Amino acid sequence: MRIDYITLPAFGMFTGKTLRLAEGKGIHLIYGPNEAGKSTLLKAIGDGLFGIPGQTAHAFLHKPSQLRIELGLQLADGTKLAFRRRKGVKNTLLDLDDKALPEEILEPFLGGLGRGDFEDMFGLDHLRLRDGGRRLLESGGDLGQSLFEAASGMRYLQEVFEGLDKEASGLYTHRSRSRLVPSLAGEYREKRRAASQAALLVGDFQELEQRYQQQREELQRVAEQVKEKRERSTALSRIKRTKPLLVQRQDLLDKLEALGPVPSLPPGSGDLYEELADALRAAELGQEEAQSQVDALQEELAGLTVPQGLLEQAAVVEELYQGLEKYAEAVDALPELEQKTQLAEESALRKLQEIRPHATRLEEAEHYRLPLMASAAVERLAEEYGQIRLDRETAGAAVQSRLADLEKAKRSLEKLGPMLDTGSLQRLVNRIRAHGALEKQHHDKLLEIAQLEESLSSQLERLPLWERPLEELASAQLPLEVTVEGCIQTERELDEKLARVKQEMEALEKQAGELRRQIGLLRTTGAVPSEKDLALARARRDHGWKLVRKAWLDKQPDVAGELEFSPDRPLPEAYEDSVTQADRISDELRRESDRVATIQALESQLGEVEGALEEKGKAEQALHEERQAFYDAWKGIWQPVQVVPLQPQAMGEWLERAQSLVQGYEELKQARVAAEALREQIGQLQGELAKALGAFVEPPRGSLGELLELAGEICEEAAERRGEHRRLTEVVEEQQDVLEKEQARLKAAQEAEQDWGRRWAEAMEAVGLPNSTDAPSALRYLRALDELFKLIDDLGVHKATRERQRKYITEYQRKVEAVVGKVGIEVYVESVPRAVRELMDGVKAAQAMLVRKEGLAAQIQGLQLRLGDLKRQATRSEEGISELMAAAECNTTEELIDILARHKQGEELREKIANLEEQLASEGFPLPQLMAEAQAMHMDRIPGELLTLQEELERLEAEQQDLNRAFGVTEKEYEEKVAGTSAQGALAAEQAQDTLARLAGAVDKYLKLKLSSLVLKRAVERYREEHQDPVLKRAGDIFAGLTGGSFTHLVVDYDAQDNPVIKGARNDELVGVEGMSDGTQDQLYLALRLASIERYLDHKEPIPFVVDDVLINFDDTRSAAALKALADLSQKTQVIMFTHHGSIVQMAAEVLPKESLALYILGRGEAAEILSGEALELAQG
Fold this sequence. Notes:
By secondary structure, the protein is an alpha/beta fold. 71% of the residues lie in helices and 6% in strands.
């Protein structure tokens, strides 16, 4: 994609300005001084592509809704798109006809980049550049991070990693229970336990319900009274407001009626009459004034007479007047020309006599004029001789110098002696160094082992239930996590079942208690006999009858039975009482049949509830037995470990800590193996290196690092000697070649000198001089001839000039005399300048008179047109007044004025009435209703009644507040009783759910943080693996150019932790980022950035690279190199560069090829003088 043009119809300080970026140019340099709009134009690119933000600083000149940006884009395949961007929330992308376009239409042009990606990857200013260099220093030149940050434009990548890890550690770590996730998990378990232990509350609420109903009814009664009083107060206030308005309205209606009948006229007829009358008077006065002006102008016109003959010769007179100064100069210069001509002739003759003393006539000089080629040949040969002689002398000296240098180089080479072969030693050193700092790795590994042993020992001491060595814990058959989790779930389910059974038993007990309470309430109103009581009473009665029959009828009394039946009363009385009792119970059963049935039903329900309670008790016992069996099995699971387990939940945490210890023990074993392997590797390499060093020095001793340093010094010294030997050999060969070339040059110089002598003799013969004439003498002779013929040529010029001046003076005087003869006026021709001036004065006077005459005619014509307009204006005014009189049905203007006055007064009254009715309508009631209310109420009674209503309302509202407070307490208590729940249990359950939600959020956030860190690290590493070689190679080339060859390329090295880092190669040494200056760090970041962009462009649609004053901290040399690097990038994509430094613009014009650079100016400034080409001014106004 490239940007063809940017138009700002309304944006920031610009209105209707366009910047067209030149076709075929790669780098576009836009210069603007401060306040010229550079920042606005830069911002317009991003806002045009991605949308104008809601809060923008560019709406100070235009309203936000008027902001518009227009862009023209073009893809690499030639596809073009032109669109506008407006400020808004949706449908902000428009075509050039202001029709909405979908945002997806820009996707092929932007390559899927968002605004942030575009600005990070393809935008760069001096602050981002400095920050990029600083980031390189902080990361120590870390290879992956540096490449990724440069490619993506992402800043603070290391802080992102640290922030993700720190935030994740704040949520959860393996060894800490105080972090948020484990803390919330423990809190959730406590809340669940509190919720499961909470019990439902019960109580008697009949009295509460009665109080609740009474208070609610009393509250409703008071609310109705308050509503009624407020409605009455509102009505009285409305009457108080509207009655004065109604009185005013009626007064205006009476005045309107008093005006009497008025013809129907259009609104504003009075104002229209005044306008027409004023227009009629103005037209009449204007006619009189215009006619007076016409008469005066016609009189003046008649008195003007123009000399026509003089006007016809005006062009000739003008020509003569323009040439008058030249004529005067010619007349004055003629004597001087005569004198110069004579002097030139005398000078030429003297010069001829210097060459040939006996010459008497100037014409003899032609005998000595030489052919042009002959004199040129002499001059050329004279000029060649000096260089030929210098070449011969220089070549001779160079041969002697090269002979001395060659002998010196040979002696140095002999002194150097034989070379040592350190190839095998160098390869061994490289192989050892490839393993990194092995001794440090071994030391670090031992330190890691000690730290692990200390940490594991501390953790083992804090592990409850275990007092044996860690090795036994690592080899113990710990239960599987899934087994423990299953037991935790089983225990939880058993606890929940027991809780449910207890809850159900409590509910049944509550229900049984309620049934007993209801039965008791029914019985307190009086004993109610049951069918069983009736059967017992009747049985007693029948038994008594049998005893009476035996005693009275059968004469066989049953004394024992009688004593049992009635021990303290006679049998007849006892029998009579039994009959009465049975009859009474029978009568009561009939009377209380409903209450009896209710009691029987309640007792039946009570029996069922008590049976259910018995079943639930059995179920509870079974669950306790099942739970005990579970705990026995739970202990069996831990038997192989030989520990007495705690509760499953606690043992789950114990198992987690034990597994952590086992895992740490495995890491410890691996670390010990690694340390031993490093020790053996160090010993092996140390032996190999000592053996290899024995070939160069006495048997060495020391650590691997010391031997490696010694070997490096030997290899480095041998490499330096080989380099010096190679250099001296090349010097000898080079000196030999140079000597042969210098000897050949000396021979050529000697031959050239001989050839010159032959050609010089031929040239002397051609100019008529002896062969022995030296070059300076020959040149002096030629210069004398040149001076002679130049004087002769000057003489000819003077003569020709004199003749032209004489001819011009004569011709000018003839023209003056001819004009004087034609114009017919008296002019003194004796003085030609005076005559010409008098003619010119006459022409000017005639032309002025002609202009005045034409002006008077034009004024007369304009006044006559104005007279016509005024007459038409007067006619229109009279017609308008006549139409008003016809509408008013009157015949005179006096009658019309009276009718218009009454009509205007009526309009004002109706307007006031309409305003009053509008105020009355705002009350929200029909006008007749308001009039009826006001008619029924006397104004003097309203204040007193309003005061009384206000006092009653205050009393009722106070009573209402007291009732509300009392009812609120009762209502809350009633709702709690009706709900039958425990506030403590509900709160605990709610808090448990809230804690669970926070726990889920914390776990989700922890997983996202860890996953984000992992994904980002893998992306950085993958980018490094894929792009390291091509990007680093290209970045090294760019970096070498930016630093002026101070660094030759970039390489990958390793830091003390064996992490790959970027270093610069300079003079056979590697320099890390920490060893570079701030400016060089910036240039390294710029090189990486440009190389990454080029890599991106190899596979994607080109995106313009926008830079803003990135070179302000570069010196001139590195600024020029950076401009060339940007020009190279512009071969692949469009580069748009903003600057407010004129020196950058001047430098770009000097160092960049014209075919790739386009320059533009914003505003006005001194830099306009150094710009050329396609510069375009885009500024305010």
